[in-house]
Amino acid sequence: MPKVKTNRVKYPEGWELIEPTLRELQAKMREAENDPHDGKRKCEALWPIFKIAHQKSRYIFDLYHRRREISKELYEFCLEQGYADHNLIAKWKKPGYERLCCLRCMQPRDHNFQTTCVCRVPKHLREEKVIECVHCGCKGCASGD
Ligand SMILES: [Zn+2]
Ligand SMILES: [Zn+2]
């Protein structure tokens, strides 16, 4: 397939390797956003969107910070272009937040009883073994789980 290149955005080297995955996730994201949400609770309708946003950020994060397969230039390009959430990635670099699902789940003010969302509580410390947090549908994202 011929590549359509615009003059507005200059794609760094290596972009063609990650583009298919990012395009696929973008397409899924659009699908989730256009989903009619019939019969779902309002918060549940947002879960797939959070999940895909998380996947995109995690993909970029892993490629750069763990697998070291992309250049700093490409990494920063992805952040600038909104392919990954740099606020979320900043948290993943901190001990205890390596698996954080979304920024909302670590904000104490959004939760009535706990200091953070139930999904942030390690599995061995919570009574319910199977959970789904209301914010993003996370099933548990404490570091040791
Ligand atoms: Zn979580
Ligand atoms: Zn969350």
TrEMBL record:
Pfam families: BUD31 (PF01125). The keyword Nucleus applies. Keywords: Nucleus. Belongs to the BUD31 (G10) family. GO terms for cellular component: spliceosomal complex. Its main location: nucleus. GO terms for biological process: mRNA splicing, via spliceosome. InterPro entries: BUD31 (IPR001748), BUD31/G10-rel_CS (IPR018230). This is Uncharacterized protein. Coiled coil: none annotated. It is found in: Nucleus.
